[in-house]
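[audit] Reproducing an earlier prediction to check determinism. Same input, same settings, fresh worker. If the tokens differ from the archived copy the diff job will pick it up downstream; this log only records the rerun itself.
[audit] input (110 residues):
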Amino acid sequence: YRPALLLVLLEVLLVSLAFTAVGLFAAVIIKSVEAFQVVVSLSLMPLMFVSGAMFPPAGLSRPLLIAMTWNPIAWGVAGTRRALHGGQFDDLEKPGVDVLMDDDRPERRD
């Protein structure tokens, strides 16, 4: 158990509530279920891909870095990484880093 996990849960809860509110707002405006699904897919998938959650932002081009700066999902990802890594982002570039492991445990070598 790490106390930072409580902060991570709070951050994930706030980001999920914010996106739920946006989805409910869109659902009120859009009357067709099919149109709502298309709008949600076309808006959330690019946000997720440009958030840096699936790949490190180090190798991105300048326009994608600018898009990532304005991406609210990227803010949630950065806050979660900051809480889990204690503010240090040096280990995020290494493949195989387990963010739920304690820092004093040695890395697994496969």
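[audit] rerun output stored. Observation attached for the diff report: Helices lie at 4-29, 33-49, 62-69, 72-85.
[audit] end
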